[in-house]
Design a protein that fits this description.
This protein is 55% helix and 3% strand. By secondary structure, it is mainly alpha-helical. Pfam families: MST (PF04978).
């Protein structure tokens, strides 16, 4: 798993952007390393955020953006009536299930970015209170947005994990490396 993107970052812009997205995904995946579903549902602060909910949220958001770029409907539709479910695991959901789903989403993201004729290709945004009417964004913008969105939540995940059991990102990187039989230096 990527911990830092090397300067040569896969040799091209697409590879670099995808590597930076993956770097941030790794931070969130490591934050749930070794936790039970019950622990991943825990909200250790006044916030509604839990680690399981963050995994679910970033997977849904990434899938939604890829669907928009392909001009398809997102797999999960969120509105005011069910928005809160985006940030929590429901009774029938597990961290393992959400991580597996996110892995599928990540593969679809890579396929989209690698197969596009140009990162300058644009797609329309649906009517949304966050964007101006009839806005269009490029695939490059999409990659940068996914980096920003995932990185933001990776920072949240670090804080939540440390609040749960005192484990820091450094310790989780070392644990991951040990489990994979590699050094993390």
């Amino acid at each position: 798993m990527v911990k830092h993107v090397p300067a040569e970052a896969k040799g091209d812009e697409r590879g670099a952007l995808l590597a930076f997205i993956e770097e941030q995904r790794g931070g969130i995946r490591r934050a749930v390393l070794g936790l039970t579903d019950e622990q991943a549902r825990t909200r250790p602060s006044a916030s509604e955020l839990s680690l399981g909910g963050l995994v679910k949220h970033v997977a849904e958001v990434e899938q939604g953006w890829v669907a928009r770029a392909k001009q398809e409907q997102p797999a999960v539709r969120r509105d005011e009536s069910n928005w809160q479910d985006c940030f929590r695991l429901t009774d029938d959901e597990t961290v393992a299930g959400q991580l597996a789903y996110w892995e599928e989403v990540a593969a679809e993201t890579e396929k989209l970015i690698r197969s596009a004729p140009s990162l300058d290709d644009t797609f329309p945004l649906p009517p949304d209170p966050w964007f101006p009417p009839q806005a269009r964004v490029s695939l490059r913008w999409l990659c940068l947005h996914l980096i920003r969105e995932t990185a933001r939540h990776a920072g949240h995940a670090d804080i939540i994990r440390e609040s749960l059991d005192g484990r820091t990102a450094f310790e989780l990187v070392a644990q991951e490396a040990q489990e994979q039989g590699a050094s993390w230096g």
